[in-house]
Every structure is written in structure tokens, then in C-alpha cells.
Design goal:
Strand order of the largest sheet: 1-2-3
Structural class: mainly alpha
Strand content: 5-15%
Order of helices and strands: HHEHEHEH
Largest sheet: 3 strands, parallel
Helix content: 40-55%
Radius of gyration: 13 Å
Shape: globular
Number of strands: 3
Oligomer: single chain
Length: about 110
């Protein structure tokens, strides 16, 4: 599911969606907008892993669940996202069929 389809699907589920196309702006946008969750397309040009690391290393944004996705045959991108600090990594084929479950898992509050 390409990013624009994900945006449409989230809007269909009544989520407010803001697309950020420049990884350098991700952390500042998250601080400004205070989202519930961030979906990160690992095929975005630029330093996307660095952007994830900045979000996860900032005390103000470290709590934000990040779901990183990449095409089915790009496992190395998902591994890089995990190393950068993404909470969940999925191939984009899973997003289409399992979006509500992914949202639930990513937004689950850790009560331990």
C-alpha cells in the first residue's frame, strides 16, 4: 500500500492525517502536531532512519509509536527501521489488510 493509499485509508477511519515528505521535518512536525502515531515509509528519500532516531531520542517525542513500512522485498529497510527505534515494522502488503489491528497494537498503552 503506497503512502497515499495509507493516508486515504486512515482518513476513511476518521483519523486526521498529515503527510510529511521530508525526513528532516519529521521531528519538528511531531513536536508541533502531537500525533497519536507516526507511519513512516522507509522508501522516502533522505535520512529516514536518522529522522526516526531523532524522534525516539527526544524526551518530548520518544513515547510516540512509530510504525515503519516498506515493500515486501525490502527487508533490509525494515531491519534498519528497527535499529533506528521504530516500534513496529511491517511490509506494506500487510498494512492494507491489517490496518485496524496495527493501529491497536501500536497505540496499546504499556501498563507494566
Amino acid at each position: 500500500m503506497p503512502g497515499s493509499q495509507l493516508v486515504n485509508r486512515l482518513q476513511d477511519l476518521n483519523y486526521r492525517v498529515l503527510a510529511v515528505n521530508n525526513p528532516a521535518q519529521l521531528a519538528a512536525t511531531i513536536v508541533r502536531e502531537s500525533p497519536l502515531i507516526a507511519f513512516v515509509d522507509m522508501q522516502t528519500s533522505g535520512d529516514i532512519c536518522g529522522a526516526i532516531e531523532r524522534v525516539k531520542s527526544d524526551v518530548a517525542t520518544a513515547h510516540l509509536p512509530i510504525v515503519a513500512f516498506a515493500p515486501d522485498k525490502k527487508l533490509e529497510l525494515l531491519v534498519a527501521a528497527q535499529k533506528a527505534g521504530a516500534n513496529l515494522t511491517v511490509d506494506e502488503g500487510m498494512i492494507a489488510g491489517h490496518l485496524p489491528q496495527l493501529l491497536e497494537q501500536a497505540l496499546r498503552v504499556d501498563l507494566d
